[in-house]
Design brief:
alpha/beta, TIM Barrel, nine-stranded mixed beta sheet, binds iron/sulfur cluster
């Protein structure tokens, strides 16, 4: 059996960013302790499967502090036989003093950090309601790189007040830290968020699409190749945990709002810290890993859907001819590349991914 990934959702944040719809709440030391104890028990019990990636996301995992996070790392090592060389990632919010935290995480076996920078412009950070400065984020990234941690930075595209020039400067600042991975997300007005209720002025869709494509070109010239719709990395520095999602491999989720895909079934823990602490059962979300789901996830990756992976997963020698036939009409406009052994979206195709997938897999 292939090793699984483990995702730990840490639901605490110092405050709510106006664009964010992830499950998070303010907590204090008592909630952090109770959460850690419950998550530790689940991780130590394991799933009867070995894992080779562990990812702390949120929320703001770094709020737990190094002591609690490393307790959870040790529990996961005990419960899922994480080997030497396993990828262990912690999302870090640079609003806190990161120096001691990063040192303790690196010494405790964490291998990778993902830093929520979002922009190198102070005005843009303020418009996004972020609680850190650009310098804090860049300094955290430089320190993580110096400690030998794989380092990823998050950037947001098409934010209030942004221009192509300011986005390019933010991307250049990320590259200069030595980070070899960058995630870039187009800002969306998610229902229920403060931005959705009171929308700020945003760049228009055509402008945003143009910046996204130019950003890909800029990062490519800096040695960070686009390997997924929103992710760029130097070769060999791709995020192994997230690759499991896009390659439709199995993973276990721990924490409120965490999703799992195990034994061919998808299920999730509902939102709500209390319910998680009380041992509430996860909710079944049906069978997972079918042909269309596998194909749609693969098309998020620049490598796309390959006959080789298809054969290994489904035992069929070639990709379904009906999909290839429908995909071919999108080759001429430059949205799709396809041949006998592969089907993939181009960066321009990524901008239309939902519509293209609906046409190809209809
Ligand atoms: S810190 Fe991250 S998870 Fe928390 S509210 Fe802001 S964007 Fe959402």
């Amino acid at each position: 059996m292939e090793p699984i990934g483990i995702y730990v959702h840490v639901p605490f944040c110092a405050g709510k960013c106006p664009y964010c719809d992830f499950y998070s709440l303010r907590g204090g030391e008592a909630e952090y302790d109770a959460y850690t104890a419950r998550a530790e028990g689940i991780l130590r019990a394991g799933w009867g499967r070995a894992a080779d990636t562990l990812y702390f996301g949120g929320g703001t995992p770094s709020l737990l502090g190094a002591g609690r996070l490393l307790r959870l790392v040790r529990a996961a090592k005990a419960g899922a036989a994480l080997p030497d060389g396993a990828e262990i990632t912690v999302e870090v919010n640079p609003s806190q003093d990161c120096a001691a935290l990063l040192e303790a995480l690196a010494a405790g076996g964490v291998t990778r950090v993902s830093i929520g920078m979002q922009s190198a412009s102070e005005e843009e950070l303020r418009a996004l309601g972020r609680r850190h400065t650009a310098d804090q984020a860049l300094e955290a990234a430089r320190r993580a790189v110096a400690l030998g941690l794989e380092t990823s930075l998050d950037l947001m595209v098409a934010t209030p007040g942004q221009s192509w020039e300011s986005l390019r400067r933010s991307a250049a600042a990320c590259v200069e830290t030595g980070a070899r991975h960058l995630s870039a997300y187009l800002l969306k007005l998610e229902p229920g968020t403060a931005f959705a209720k009171d929308p700020p002025a945003l760049p228009d869709e055509d402008e945003a699409a143009d910046w996204y494509l130019r950003l890909g070109g800029f990062l490519e010239s800096a040695g960070l190749r686009q390997y997924e719709i929103s992710n760029f990395a130097a070769p060999g520095h791709e995020g192994r945990h997230n690759l499991k999602y896009w390659r439709c491999e199995e993973y276990a989720g721990v924490g409120p709002a965490a999703h799992s895909f195990l034994g061919g079934r998808r299920f999730y823990q509902p939102r709500g810290l209390r319910r998680f602490l009380d041992g509430g059962a996860p909710v079944d979300d049906g069978e997972g890993g079918g042909r269309e789901e596998f194909a749609m996830l693969a098309l998020r990756l620049r490598e796309g859907l390959t006959a080789e992976r298809w054969r290994r997963r489904f035992g069929e020698p070639s990709l379904p001819e009906a999909w290839l036939r429908r995909a071919r009409k999108f080759v001429a406009p430059g949205w799709v590349e396809c041949g006998l052994g592969f089907l993939r979206l181009t960066p321009r195709g990524f901008l239309l991914s939902n519509a293209l997938m609906a046409e190809i897999f209809c």
